[in-house]
Amino acid sequence: MDRDHTRSVERSVRVVNRRFQVRSLAESLLTI
């Protein structure tokens, strides 16, 4: 059970990181 929980957590963290990267990329493009 713990293994599945950590797996879901890693997946959510990955999604959040992807969103953050996209946001930072968009901001950098807008500032240029």
TrEMBL record:
| Superkingdom of origin organism | Eukaryota
Tell me what this protein is called: Arg_ACG
